[in-house]
Structures are given as C-alpha cells and as structure tokens.
Amino acid sequence: MTNLPNDADDEIDLGQILATLWRGKFWIAATTAVGFAVGAYQIANTYPTFQADAMLQLESRPGGAMALPSGVAGMVNTPSHGETEIEILRSRMVLGRAIAEQNLDWRISPETMPFAATMFSRYRFPVLDAFLPATVVRPNERIVLENLVVPPDFLDTAIELVVQSETEYLLTLPDGREVPGTVGQASTVPQIGFSLTIAAIEAPAGRRFFVRQLSETNAINAMRGRVSAVERGASWRGSGIIEVRLTGQDRAETVRALNGIIHAYVRQNISRSAAEAESSLVFIREQLPVAERNLRDAEEALNAFRREQVTIDLSLETQTILGQVTRIEGELSDLQRREDELAQRFTPAHPSYRQLLDERTRLQARLDALRDQIGALPETQRQILNLSSEVELSLRIYTDLLTRAQEVEVLRASTIGSVRIIDSASPLPPRIAPRTQQILAVAMFMGLLAGVGGVLLRSWLRKGVQDASDLERFGLPVFATINYNRGADSHGMRKGDFPLIALSDPTDLTVEGLRSLRTSLHFAMLDARTPTLTLTSPHPGAGKSFLAANMAVIAAQAGQRVCLIDADMRRGQLRRYMGQVRNDAGLAEILSGQIQPANAVAQGPVEDMFFIGTGRYPPNPSELMMRSELAQLIEWASAEFDLVLFDAPPVLAVTDPVILARSTAATILIARYGVTPPGEINSAIKTFDAAGVRFAGSILNGFDPSKAQHYGRGYAYRYTYEQRQD
Predict the structure, then answer these.
(1) Domain map of the chain by residue range?
(2) What is the model's pTM?
(3) 471-490, pLDDT tens digit by residue?
(4) How many CB atoms lie within 10 A of CB 157?
(5) Superfamily for 477-490+499-710?
(6) 183 touches 200 (CB < 8 A)
(7) Strands ordered across the beta sheet of 142-149
(8) Which residues pair with 169 in a beta bridge?
C-alpha cells in the first residue's frame, strides 16, 4: 500500500517559503497599507498628551526650628520616608483639595462625527468641511467655562450646550429642561441648585458642546491615574528628592493642575508639622485660667492665716526648708513630664527611662526628709510653711505655663513644614503621546505580519502538488506536464460551448504538451490488450475533461481513429466541447440497452474523431457501469477505433472510475498543479489498491512556469519553437 512520502515533506524549504511570500507580495503590501492607514487613523483621532514635571525636597527638619530652644525643637516631627510622602501626595486628601481649588473636575467635550472620533475637531479638511453637520465642532472652536454648580443627580452626566450666537447659548439639562444663557451671566435653576456661567464663546452658531462635572471619586481617580511621583537617586539612601509628573491633553491646564497639587501637598505638610504645636497650645490655654485661679486661692489662704496669727515673717530656717521643698517639687514635676514623653517611646527597662526613675526616687526621698523636718516645727510655722509652699508651687506652675505658651506660639508661627518646592511645574517640550513613528511602525508591522500569515496560511491550506517529482514519490510515472492556459481555465464560468485550443491555438505550449502526452501514451499502450484509456482525477476541477477533449483532437490529427466517451453520467460536460445538446442519446442509453453503440456515435470536430456523450443523466450511474453492456461497448469500440478515451468522474467522489479501470486497458490519474493535495492522491491510490487495480501513470495539468520559478523550481519544461515565417 502506498503511503504519503514524508522524508522530504518534513523538511522546511526556506526558498519555497520566500517564493510563496513573493507570490503574495501584493496581498502583503495591501495588508501593510491597511495597517498604515489604521495607524494613521489612530494618530489622527488621539489627542496629544503633554507632561509637566516639578521637583520637591523632603528636609530632615524645618530650618526655622534651629533657632528655637531645645525643649521646643524636640516637638518638631521628623519627616516621613520618601515612599510614604509619595503616597500622601497621591492621596484623596491632597488631590481632592487641588481639584476643588483648581476646578479640575469640570469637563468640556465637543460634538464629533460618528466613527471619526476627534479627527474633524482637531484638523481642518476644507473639502469635507462643507459636508459636516453644523453641530460638529471644528478646530480652534471652544467655550470658556467660568463657574459650574450642579446638583448631585447631575454629577458625571453631560449637559448639552448649543451655541446660538457669539453671546448666547441654550442649555439642555439631563432632566430635559432647557435653559437659555448669555455670556458672562449665570444661568441658574434655583429649584435644583444648578448654576453655570460661560466666560466666552469662540464658535459659530449651531456648534454643540457637552459640559459635565465629575463626582469627587471619579475626579480623584482620574487625577490619580495622571499623576506619578518617584524619589530620585538610590531609594535606599533616602535622597529626599521627589520628582512629580502629570500628564494631560492641555499643556497649560496640566501645568496649572500640577502646581495646584504640589502646593496643596506643601500646605498639608505644614499643617501636619504644626498640628502638635497647635494641640499643645490649646491645652496650655485651657490650663492657664485654672493655674491662675489656684495661685490666687493659695495667696488668699496665706494672707488670711497671717492676719489671724498676726505672723508676718518666717524664720531663716523655715524659709530655707520652704525653698528646698519648692525646688524639689518643681524638679519632680519636670521629671513627671519627661517620664510621660519617654513612656511613648521606650519601656521602663530602657537605660534613659531607668535613670529618670532613679532620679525621681532620690528626689522623693529628699522631699520626704524635708517634710519630716517640717513636722518638727511649731504648728504656726508649719501652717505658714505649707501655705507658702502652695503659693510657690502655684506660681511656678503658672509661670511655666505662660513660658510654654509663648514657646509654642513661636513654634507655630515659624513652622514651614518639611517639604520645599525646588522646581515649580513646567511643561516638557515634546508631547509624550501619540508617538507617531512608533504607532505607524507597529501598525505597519502588524499589517505586514497579518499579510505574511495570511499568505502562508493560504498556501498551507491550498498546498497542492508542485511538480512531477511530487507525483513520482507515489510511484506514479508522469506521462506529461501540461502548461496552464488562461483561456481554457476561464471557460467554466461561461455559458455555451467550450473552445478546443488544439484547434483555436495549435501553437500554444499547452497543445505542445498534449502532443508530448500523445507520443508517451502511444508507446506506453503498444502492448495493451485493448486501445482503451480511462482518465480520472482525485477531485473535480483538475481539468480532465479539457485534456480528454483536446487529446482526442490531437490524436485524430495524427491519423488515429479516436472515440471520446463521456463516462461522467452525473455532471459530464464534454458535449459542450463537441457542440452537442444535452438530450442526445449517449452512454446511459447504451448501458441500459436502449440503443446500440453505433447509433450513439457522433462525428467530432475533426476527421477520424468521434464522440459518445453521457446521454440523459440516469439515477443509477454506478449500477449501469456494472452491467455487461459496458464490456460489449469496450469490445465494439476496440474493434472500431485505434484509441478509446473514457472521461470518468473523480475517483474520490464516486466508484465509477474503479469499475471502468477494471474494464479498460489503462487508467491515468490527472493532478492539477498547486490545487491537488498530496493527501488526495494518496487516497485515490488507496482506493484503487483496495479494488485490485492500479494507475498506469499520471498527468500534471495546469502547470504555471512563472509560479514554479517563484517557488524556486526553475525547470524549463518546454521551449517555444515556432515555425519561421519567411
């Protein structure tokens, strides 16, 4: 059993691939041009994107704090790491404040052409301009929005604005109501809380714009997608230099928006730095009245006791004890404040914390010893000492609060934050999108890739035999290679009779190939039992009827008596070469016994050529082929003619060719160049092998030398050798 050859087919023929691509060069060029057009369309309908940048510095501590007392300077917060500050800069707090201050949540979009996007609103087309609707906005036409306030239901919803004149317009709100307006005057609907003011109109009457206000969430998300920040230098070093970039479709608006963002960020940084000072100042102001009242109460109590006891002065010893007690209590109060600060940062096991605890223990022991000495004093002296101590302590607390309040006031006034603007926002010179060259290159490459893929896919799907060697690999001798003839190939779409190129163009290379086939068959059939030959193909469209008709003419011109029989009783078309009508009696009537073969024979277009058509198409062609009348027909034709040609239907479609092959002397398989797949040839051979018959050989039909050269097969199958005209 013959199998598909795979030794050579498994190899990749680079030359053949290149030749295939060269044959499809026009298709590849077309897809590349389409890719270029798509890229140009994309560029024309993409607004240019600009970028602005600014630079910030994160300082370790504000410069103004260097001149403050050490106790106050300790209140200044250390700035966060660069990545943390970047996230703060992109936070809703900062972006929302910048959007509200700069009105970055307002959107104005022009009316555009369907399927044309923004092309006509950005470029002027003088020829097409007259055909555009009056509502479509042209280049350099705009409106300037001064104020916009919408109710919550109108957020993210377009408000239609149609220009009526240079100073008038008409609004159509989302709820359907229409509101006329004048430039410079607010158009309001108080019932729903709507207000809109147009500062200027730079467009003719009829133009349509759409105004909308984004919700806070959508505006912040949109702005966050446009802003980017990165810490310059090695991040692990903490350079503290942050570069902020913002993209946008309007260069001036992008610069304005970025300046708004960085200034909002700096203000919040300053507010954050002064927040602790502000909190301390509020607490101190709340405690000052209490301390002042406690001081007055202590002084009044001391004065009252002195008036009662008629005691004015303390002894020197008592005054010394009082001073020591007051000093130690003040120190203990300072230690308590220091302990509160350390408790927020360290545990009691920390050396600094333990040192503070030891100091407090020592002072407390000293205070207890002084109080024991006070207990040994007379009652009057003890009372005076205690009251004087209360006055001294209250005075100290009140004085400390006043001092602390002044220090915090100075700190709050001198706070400049930990962020410094190094470079304000400025636009980068070139636009960053669309990148014309890159888009066109990618679009053309994609078009080229699609063209190459399409050509290779089409070649793979339509891969047929390419030369005689493809047939010889199946063990089929090739009797002839018949060149392609354009005139013969176009007859399938015409009505009426088909031309015989053996008569109309006898010098054509196709006819020369048929003459070569006649010679090859003559010597191949010298020892045949009968002069009968069956022509078939694996599939329809291989050109077997064309070959059979012209071969019969050429054989008759060589002096042989030839009978051409159309054995395709399903779709036979040989009658159209012979000029006969469809209902003439033919093979169907002979096999059914209705007429004798001699009564069905018709004279062909040349002498010694005769023809038997299919007759009326029968419902059971295969059954008719199996009748004894077929053998009788072959016996009669072999005695009457030198060559009998049977034009059989395709072997993979019906079983008729197998039946004919068992009765005729030889069967030839016709394959069409570039059309007949090798798999179908293999299937046809297997079909004949299963029936116990074999093909005598094959014919390669429709060979195109120009395509063969494109495939890298430069075989000169035939030369033109015409008679010289003297």
Answers:
(1) 14-46+434-461, 106-213, 291-413, 477-490+499-710
(2) 0.56
(3) 898 999 999 998 888 766 65
(4) 15
(5) P-loop containing nucleotide triphosphate hydrolases (3.40.50.300)
(6) yes
(7) 142-149, 194-202, 186-189
(8) 163, 181
